[in-house]
């Protein structure tokens, strides 16, 4: 097994949980003529129960329980196989995790045929674009997204910011940097809390002007988590509570720190400026002492510089802060440990904190020892990580939904009627 073990386990659960959706897709392929998604044929009590079950599945989806949500969508589709909300959201989960993509395509085709509402069709189009992106079909994705942003009247209202963000990603991949920058700036003009958009725009700017890219990220951090409103002493964020239109508390500090970590990663691109990178990481750690990301990246610099004592200190402080549910960070650390000079220290710390069990720790330590002689003859390339997926990837670790354009629910029963 490698560092993707945890993710593969999640994908297996999602594939199993999606069987009810797949059965519905196969069993009711010709059911579009019945228009059951409008509730025709259901009693008032049945419609009420159906609405409650859909709300519960959407809540599980938004709450980070994709397997449970898929089971809920599957049960609903057995009753109403043309419900565009259940079809689109089930497809989104599959796309998020890179599994059952053919079934996702079939679900989105049915969802498109099942609704004539332009807004809902735009929601479906965004997921179709994400599916195209999974296969590198950028032209097809741009066509879907251009249609979606044209139909959606308010670029600041969901799901338009996601459509603009994905459009920017497509244009960036296709080499249209001015177009990509315009798309990302459109997002930030209406959704200035969107961490991925700040990062994606900064990465474009960094190709020609690294200091300007870092300034951009600092500006984003100042907006999201200004020290006077989101310092370590600030009260925890309460759902529904905002300050001047901005959520606050721990979530804001995590998001702001993520932007400072990204500034550090920009400075770690060749030619590396370790001193500037460490300065950004120190600022991120002061802003959000709870975050493991500044410390993990400090440890990466320590390993590059062969500073064993500093590596031991930083990794020892970082690992207890890692959430057991942050599978991407855990996978990153395991991958780095396998190839790293000080991998045994990382693995031991992860074992002490219960991020891997004893049997797995022993197996990985043996594999690390086995690779040691080969590793000593080669130059280790260290990879740094900020916890944010700034592209068309789906799930974002370390960033709360208020600050993210990825991983949210495709649509709800009330969306864009």
From TrEMBL:
It comes from the Bacteria. Pfam families: TPR_6. Residues 223-251 are annotated as: Disordered. This is Tetratricopeptide repeat protein.
């Amino acid at each position: 097994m490698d560092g993707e073990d945890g993710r593969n386990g999640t994908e297996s659960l999602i594939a199993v949980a999606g069987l009810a959706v797949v059965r519905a897709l196969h069993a009711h392929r010709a059911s579009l003529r019945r228009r059951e998604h409008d509730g025709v044929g259901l009693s008032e009590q049945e419609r009420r129960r159906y609405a409650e079950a859909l709300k519960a599945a959407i809540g599980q989806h938004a709450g980070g329980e994709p397997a449970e949500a898929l089971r809920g969508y599957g049960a609903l589709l057995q009753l109403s196989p043309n419900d565009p909300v259940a079809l689109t959201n089930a497809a989104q989960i599959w796309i998020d995790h890179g599994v059952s993509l053919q079934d996702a395509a079939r679900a989105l085709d049915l969802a498109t045929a099942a609704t004539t509402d332009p807004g809902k069709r735009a929601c479906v189009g965004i997921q179709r674009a994400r599916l195209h992106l999974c296969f590198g079909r950028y032209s097809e994705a741009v066509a879907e997204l251009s249609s979606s942003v044209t139909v959606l009247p308010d670029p600041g209202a969901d799901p338009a910011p996601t459509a603009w963000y994905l459009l920017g990603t497509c244009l960036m991949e296709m080499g249209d940097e001015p177009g990509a920058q315009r798309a990302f700036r459109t997002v930030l003009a209406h959704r200035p809390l969107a961490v991925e958009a700040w990062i994606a725009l900064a990465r474009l700017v960094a190709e020609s002007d690294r200091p300007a890219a870092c300034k951009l990220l600092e500006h984003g951090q100042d907006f999201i988590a200004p020290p006077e409103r989101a310092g370590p002493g600030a009260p925890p964020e309460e759902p529904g509570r905002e300050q001047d239109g901005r959520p606050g508390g721990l979530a804001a500090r995590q998001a702001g720190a993520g932007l400072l970590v990204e500034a550090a990663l920009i400075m770690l691109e060749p030619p590396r400026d370790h001193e500037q990178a460490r300065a950004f990481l120190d600022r991120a750690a002061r802003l959000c002492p709870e975050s493991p990301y500044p410390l993990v990246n400090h440890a990466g610099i320590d390993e590059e510089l062969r500073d064993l004592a500093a590596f031991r200190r930083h990794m020892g402080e970082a690992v207890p802060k890692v959430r057991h549910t942050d599978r991407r960070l855990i996978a990153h650390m395991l991958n780095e440990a396998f190839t790293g000079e000080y991998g045994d220290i990382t693995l031991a710390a992860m074992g002490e904190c219960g991020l891997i069990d004893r049997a797995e720790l022993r197996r990985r330590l043996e594999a690390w020892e086995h690779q040691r002689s080969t590793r000593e003859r080669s130059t280790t390339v260290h990879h740094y990580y900020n916890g944010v997926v700034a592209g068309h990837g789906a799930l974002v670790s370390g960033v709360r939904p208020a600050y993210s354009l990825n991983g949210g629910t495709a649509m709800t029963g009330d969306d864009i009627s």
